[in-house]
Amino acid sequence: MNLDDFTDLIERPDGGVRRDAEDRRALVDLAPDALGRLDELGEWLAAAQSAAPVRPIRQPKVIVFAGDHGVAELGVSARPAGTADRLVRAVLAGESPVSVLARGQEVPVRVVDMALDCDPDTLPEDVVRHRVRRGSGRIDVEDALTAEQVDAALAAGVAIADEEADSGTDLVVLGDLSVGGTTAAATLIAALCGTDASVVTGRGGSPIDDLAWMRKCAAVRDALRRARPVLGDQAELLAAVGGADLAAATGFLLQCAVRHTPVILDGVVSAACALVAQRVAFRAPDWWLPGHASGEPAQAKAFDRMALEPLVEHGVTVGGGVGALLALPLVRSAAALAAELPDYAAKGPEDDGDDADASTEDGTAAEGTAEAAGPAGGTATDPE
Fold this sequence. Notes:
With about 375 residues, the protein is of the alpha/beta class. It has a 5-stranded parallel β-sheet, sandwiched between helices. The protein starts with a helix and ends in a 12-residue tail after the last helix. It contains 17 helices and 5 strands. Helix 13 packs parallel to helix 14 (about 295-305).
């Protein structure tokens, strides 16, 4: 796969439509800053959809890329190495945090196994059909993937983005399930931001103790030595110190930008994939929203480098797309407000009450007044 093609394929969201949305918001009977960041979100969605007023979010979906990482053998995670399949099974059974939240919001969840360290026959075919290998390599001493495997993972991510766009998915909540994945993510972010291991190494979704954190720092440090010589080629970088799940998520993010599908990013793993994708195509981040601040230093570093500001901060570290899913109601609310608040042009001049009888003989003025009142005959705003 030639990643350079994405530079030409990815366009920015429609700037003209965004200006139309801004002009429309200026006519709404609310102070310019009354809705805070909701205004910005509504305008961003209008540009992404190339529609003003913005359309409601009708078919969101949670997409979760899963895999095991060989570096977990070093004791860098609170979970035993090679056990990410347990996390996947909990999602499929509807018993994980992301399953519960998605069910409450009526959002389907799709899990994609890219490199779980388990027998593929023990999971549904639609989960394992894109699998590249059984577990990614131990990045402190060896490549995570071969060149052929990273190409296959990137292509899988592109294909999944196309499948979702073709099926009508209008917004993606991107998550990940892995053991050892945050170590790979920290390495990618440290390499791309030019920082030391200790600056980006956090304690992961299942918090680790001080000894495990020191082991994780050492693993990131050693992996960084292997990452720096291949910084100029993002596919080689993912092969060296990424993993099949990270490579697939990177391809997915790039193709979502090609297909004009907005994405809410989750934790440090999706932030790392986004940072790699930004290196591939500088316009791609215009199609993504950072869902939440997880507290992971590498995530904060990546979002800062991409000039992305998280929507919420609840201290959620569980991963799996949970933090991003918590931001979805905010995005839906922004879309509803941008679409449904009437502007002065639609509402017409204020009725001062003295013109109630000033209708034409056929009653057309009275009908216009009734229409201007909005749904159910009520006023659209309640100015203070």
